[in-house]
Amino acid sequence: MAAADGWLLRLRPPEARVDGPALRRLSAIARRHADGAVLLTRRAKLELRGIRDPDATTAALRAAGWMEDETTAALPDQIISPATDIDTAAIADAMTVHQRLHAALSGRDATLDLPDKFAVAIDGGGRLGVPEVHADIRLDALDGTHWRLAVAGSRASATSLGCWQANALTAAVTALIDRFAAAQTAGAPAPRRMRDLLARDGAQRLAEACPPPRANESRSAPRAGGPPILGYHDGLGHVIAFAFGRIGADALETIADGLARRGEHLRLLPDRRVLLPAADANDSAALRAAGALDTPGDPRLGLAACIGRGGCAQATTATRADALALAARAPTVAGAGEVGLHVSGCAKGCAHRRPAAVTLVGRAGGYDVVVAGAPDEPPLWTELAVAAAGSRLAALERIHVAQRQDGETPLAVFRRLGRQRLLELSEAEIAGE
Ligand code: SF4
């Protein structure tokens, strides 16, 4: 896929696991053919960016065992809770469910032709469950043998189709995928995602498309999920993240060394996190020195930024350096667990096209400031130097702290206040500096 900073390639490691030697091979390819880093995505995949020669990169990845074959590449993403084998709080084994579904889908004659973003979430619960993942199809463990099958949403928001035993899940999910695929070719309007098919056909008809036996309906409410975890956790290992999801060369080497020494595989988690099983305190210090983040609320977790000046001809600002420098001016805005501060080289918004709490949009060496909007929405302030943008950001931080209500995200606070009120409050804050 072409991007403003060169070609990008997304990779799906089998079972969301990578061992030390495979990571070393990938790191070498990133240095030789891309921008040197490996990126974590929000859907638990890996990405190489800044690729100069896509054919040579693909050949190198294939030789290193990193490319999927054509049949597997056509399968939908399966976002799994990848550590149910070691997480003592897990409810059920997600990996076996994933392996059965993968085998059933890849063993069929016809190649699936599904939308790129079509995804199945397989959530065995526990400390590393995937409750926040919005998927077309969700499987949520209810107990050791029963799973809820649901569509179009997260663990909390998906619409339940009922409860199935683990050994009947593969047939139910493949039937649902087949129904979606058939609807896509059955004439207009074709559903683009499962939510469209749900709106058209309703939950009852979708449930009837899945072969019985369904299990007891009263079991069909999964437990609520906790917030994503970070840091060291007994019995699991170390959960880490990186600013912008970018794992640089030093960190890749440190992680690969640790995995090889312990004979372990890293596990990819949604929201650009990684579990390093059985990592110890020595590994943690080295990882932090290489840029790993492991403290919940760290404002660098909520940053998004494109490559900026030097990597894209459209950019006139050093987006990532500015984002890192400015994050400290708005720690609760940036560190609230969503994209809080987006620094974009221009209104195209390659790093994050959707609304963030605050978006700085580069223009002529300075920034426009969009609050509670996407990069191409009208700014609250225009053409500010970096220092002035930082001052507005600090004012927004104080407004957020003073005005937030229980459970409200920074984006929701700023949306509730609205443009006029935000301008009034900001002027008062800046006048009082
Ligand atoms: S957002 Fe604009 S400046 Fe940044 S990479 Fe995309 S096109 Fe380039």
In short:
By secondary structure, the chain is an alpha+beta fold.
Description of the molecule:
The chain has 433 residues and is an alpha+beta fold. The protein has 3 domains: 2-71 and 227-293, Sulfite Reductase Hemoprotein,Domain 2 (Sulfite Reductase Hemoprotein, domain 2); 91-124 and 132-219, Sulfite Reductase Hemoprotein, domain 1, CATH 3.30.413.10; 299-431, Sulfite Reductase Hemoprotein, domain 1 (2-Layer Sandwich). Helix content is 35%, strand content 23%. The protein contains 12 helices and 21 strands. It has helices at residues 20-33, 54-63, 70-73, 94-106, 169-185, 194-209, 249-262, 281-289, 319-327, 331-334, 386-403, 410-431, and strands spanning 2-3, 6-11, 17-19, 38-40, 46-51, 77-80, 119-123, 135-141, 146-153, 159-165, 231-233, 237-242, 246-247, 265-269, 273-277, 292-293, 303-305, 341-344, 356-363, 366-373, 381-384. The strands form 4 sheets. Strands 3, 11, 12, 14, 15 and 16 form a 6-stranded antiparallel β-sheet that branches. The chain has a 5-stranded antiparallel β-sheet with strand order 1-2-5-4-13. It has a 5-stranded mixed β-sheet with strand order 6-7-8-9-10. Strand 4 and strand 5 form a beta hairpin. Helix 1 runs antiparallel to helix 7 (249-262) and helix 7 runs antiparallel to helix 8. The longest helix is centred in the last third of the chain and has 22 residues, at 410-431. It is globular. The mean pLDDT is 92. Residues 4-5, 306-307, 312, 314-315, 344-346, 348-350 line the site of iron/sulfur cluster (SF4).
